[in-house]
UniProtKB/TrEMBL annotation:
Name under which the protein is recorded: YCII-related domain-containing protein
Species annotation: Pantoea coffeiphila
Database matches in InterPro entries: Dimeric_a/b-barrel, YCII
Domain YCII-related: 1-78
Lineage of origin: Bacteria, Pseudomonadati, Pseudomonadota, Gammaproteobacteria, Enterobacterales
PANTHER family per UniProt: GSR2449 PROTEIN (PTHR37828), YCII-RELATED DOMAIN-CONTAINING PROTEIN (PTHR37828:SF1)
Sections of the chain in a coiled coil: none
Length: 94
């Protein structure tokens, strides 16, 4: 799986201006079964998306569609989950 950290590079006013299409983009990939989890950083300096283990080129293409490309930078890390707490056992091997 991948963990994608987004960090805002533009003022919050610009982030808010593209928030609605960004949420629609997130919803699309949840519906397609690609995204596992997503949320805001606290303090609100960006966000995080957990993504199923897909081809990296496909992930890059998906991220390129995100309206937040105009207001954020992305840090993508591939993680091989080998152990999880019982509540998160479904993540093992994703």
């Amino acid at each position: 799986m991948y963990i994608v950290f987004l960090s805002y590079t533009r003022p919050m006013q610009e982030v808010e201006a593209v928030l609605e299409p960004h949420v629609a983009w997130i919803n699309r990939y949840f519906a397609e079964g690609v995204f596992i989890s997503a949320g805001r950083k606290d303090p609100r300096t960006g966000g995080m998306i957990m993504v199923k283990d897909i081809d990296r080129a496909r992930l890059d293409a998906i991220l390129a569609e995100d309206p937040f490309q105009a207001v954020a930078s992305y840090d993508v890390t591939k993680v091989n989950i080998t152990r999880s707490a019982e509540e998160f056992a479904g993540l093992t091997g994703i």
